[in-house]
Design brief:
Distance between the termini: 12 Å
Shape: globular
CATH superfamily: Flavodoxin domain
Number of domains: 1
Strand content: 15-25%
Radius of gyration: 17 Å
Length: 195
């Protein structure tokens, strides 16, 4: 059995969205299969922006949400990120949270000569679930899934997380209820397999 961490990254914590339903379906599937599930809801966290290298490198008085997230990531075998596409990328709240949590000495170490790094989050896999208003095919073919690919390559793989899988769910505002239910069922199956 696996330890699964679900990061619900829809910034609107006051309203339930399709992202929340997807997270719930994944968690239900994982729990039913005997996996341990932990969740972080970014919409309920006040995440301050880092404005300097000194702030990012500081290890003093880290916010509680940072130390809690780092502990949960260390305990996880599999991490699931769920978020809506905003202005062609992840919401600013998720980016700010990642900058706070994935600090040097936690997610990676730069080697002494500065010519490489030691990824510190190896041994974990991840699934990225992105919802969007546009059709998924347009995002894949015209936009080349650019922000998703950057998240996978420049953040998660850089920190050693692999294998990486993703689900792109397009046309969510106009999606027929049957289409939404199909995706919820699929998330449940992914949860059962912890993939």
């Amino acid at each position: 059995m696996s330890s699964v961490l679900i990061i619900q990254a829809h910034p609107d914590g006051g309203t339930r969205h399709y992202c929340h339903a997807l997270a719930k379906a994944y968690a239900t599937g994982a729990t039913s299969a005997g996996h341990t599930v932990r969740e972080i809801d970014l919409g309920t966290i006040d995440v301050p922006l880092l404005r300097s290298q000194a702030e990012w490198e500081s290890r003093e008085s880290l916010p509680e949400f940072v130390t809690n997230a780092q502990r949960l990531m260390e305990e996880a075998d599999h991490i699931v990120f769920i978020y809506p596409l905003w202005l062609g990328s992840m919401p600013a709240l998720l980016k700010a949270w990642l900058e706070q949590v994935l600090r040097a000495d936690f997610a990676f170490n730069i080697v002494p000569n500065g010519m490489g790094w030691d990824a510190r989050l190896g041994g974990r896999s991840a699934r990225i679930v992105v919802t969007m208003g546009m059709p998924a095919l347009i995002y894949r073919l015209f936009f080349m899934s650019h922000s998703l690919r950057a998240f996978e390559r420049n953040i998660l793989k850089f920190a050693g997380v692999k294998p990486l899988r993703h689900s792109i769910i397009g046309s969510v505002e106009s999606k027929h209820p049957k289409g939404r239910e199909t995706w919820l069922a699929r998330m449940g199956k992914y949860g059962e397999a912890a993939i």
